Amino acid sequence: MSTWLVTGGAGYIGSHVVRELQLAGFQPVVFDDFSAGLHSRVPQDVPVVEGDIADTKALRAAFTKFEVTGVIHLAAKKAAGESVDLPLYYYKENVTGLQSVLGAIVDSGIDNFVYSSSAAVYGTPQSNPVKESEPLNPESPYGETKVIGEWLAKDLATSNALNWVSLRYFNVAGAGSDDLGDNSVNNLIPMVFQALEIGGRPKIFGADYPTPDGTCIRDYIHVVDLAGAHVAAVKKCETGRANLAINVGRGSGVSVQEVMDSIAGVIGRDISPEVVGRRAGDPAATFADVELGEAELAWSAQRDLNDMVSSAWSAWQSAHR
After folding, report:
1. Among all residues, which ones are annotated catalytic?
2. What are 260-303's pLDDT values in tens digits?
3. What top-level class would CATH report for the domain 3-172+221-248?
4. CATH architecture, domain defined by 174-218+251-288+302-319
5. Is the pTM of this model over 0.90?
6. 189 to each of 7, 35, 133, 283, 313, how far by Cα in Å?
């Protein structure tokens, strides 16, 4: 049984990855500073190291102590809008922090690396579905940091024979269980729940896009499916033949209005969303081409939008009772 250290393993996505690793027969170790992660999300039989990814010495010590054979790097700041206002902070956390992780990996002779990237590397795509060969044209400092992360991994594949897979997430939603809900204030579904919680109306940012219902189209993927993609990437790295970036989505688009309709159906009442002005930088439509993931990782998403909304609603209710 190989051991994989998961940075950010107590976060929303990380905690799902940890549980899927366990189910697949791997030994996870969580490394987290708990600035956003929660101790309650980590299974009791999973070792936890509380530390900052900028602390290369602490990473090396954890690698040695637990005989780590691979690293899944999730720890990062991820709000694109915030990154426009705080670019230095984002580069420090997402690039300098990654340099520390990769430095510890090289120092420790670890060969395998799975990187949490983002569809933000594409910016506004030239066409849909978006293939991995699409030019990388990020439109925020956040997206830029993810491109740089992929470059670093690719360069280490050349200099140090690092096996790496970069997973370009599209829009992640849902929950694997009621204790693993998304507490982000930046993701659409919890934003809607938050608005309803305080008696407000959820917002739709623009209904005049060139799409069938006028609202933006995005590719939503269930967080459990996303976690499964990480396990598939781990297995790919362990073959010793991994050097690639993969889209992680469902391969089809869902509009913001369709998400609102799904939420209304799940909770059983009209939610009366309010249409407001467009947000700067929002492309009309972005959804993934998923053929490469199916071919290289033997993986594909299994859950639909209703699964995401219903599981997210159950987790939200559990957390706010």
Report:
1. 142
2. 999 999 999 999 999 999 987 788 899 999 999 999 999 999 99
3. alpha beta
4. Alpha-Beta Complex (3.90)
5. yes
6. 25, 22, 30, 19, 9
